[in-house]
Amino acid sequence: MTMPDSTARLPQLPLLAGRSVALVHEWFGATGGSEAVFLAIADLLPQAERLVLWADEGVDTERLRLNQSWMSNTPLIKSKALALPAMPLVWRTLSNHKFDVVISSSHAFAHTVKLGDPAETRHLSYIHSPARYVWSPDFDGRGSHPALKVPRKVLQKADIRLSKHVHAYAANSREVQGRIQRFWNRDSVVINPPVDVRYFAGAPAQDQYQSRDYLLGIGRWIPYKNFDLIIEIAEAAGMPLVIAGSGPEEERLRQLAATKRVPIHFEVRPERDRLRQLYWGARALLFPAHEDFGIIPVEAQACGTPVLGLRRGGLLETVVDGETGFLLDGLEPGPYAQAIRRLPELDPNRIQWHANSFSSDRFADRMARWIDDETR
Q: What is the pTM of this model?
């Protein structure tokens, strides 16, 4: 079977050599997919100035060369929902410097930053999603904060008005591409996020030859990730379950797990090596959530682990139904339990091969080409 093509890296000279460049990101968390994308773009442009609203506790801002805004010194950083209405203003006061090229990594309002006259400054924006809190409050329950009810319409209008200077958009998935068109009436190209498939595929032999005798759920323990459903699926399938991650739902999920007959083990904030080990030991990853893209399912597939997930959002791009996992339409545990019985039909080698389509090298190639094309 031929491996996915990896095109020669571009360009030969350093990207945007001789031009002043700013990389802009929202708040910077200790871990996260959007942060990984930002750092991958930064690797392509080591000369760029890196600007963020604030960095969470534990982030080595000096090593990462992150310049934080004045918002980092306010109490607003303790609540992203409360900080959201102020973000457009903060971005407009972030820097007095002017740049030749601005590249924003945005899941809220980073794409509204303006660091130069649009006639002279080329602004490219990589969109993880139009702000869920503003545009899709029903998609993520955190967007239903009472403080956002009144200003939501105002923020939607501001989001469109303050981003007209953006010259080109890239979306992290076809799902997000559709939202960009629907909410902003703007075109975009799709560049899937980078996944370190080489690391996850290259586990030590003792990790690769595990018995695969449990189901696995990984992610932040918040309502829309549906970890309560994951527990119910394991119970319906009669299989042990490992839940890895952290979040505000921990106590409730532990209480629910205690009522089940199957063993359920919680791994709180596992290190990367342990996470890889968990992927390799799992019969399948359970991922019944509507995600913009979803890096976790790709990491699992890099380990030859199939994915059982919801037939929505990013999984439509990352999982080949019937080949690298099974996609289901509802949120009832029964069909998932039935799909688990079909897992022997899937070829682990095919699953791993598919994951290579989302490698870090592929992202770097496509991102470099997009930046080069849009800044000529």
A: 0.87
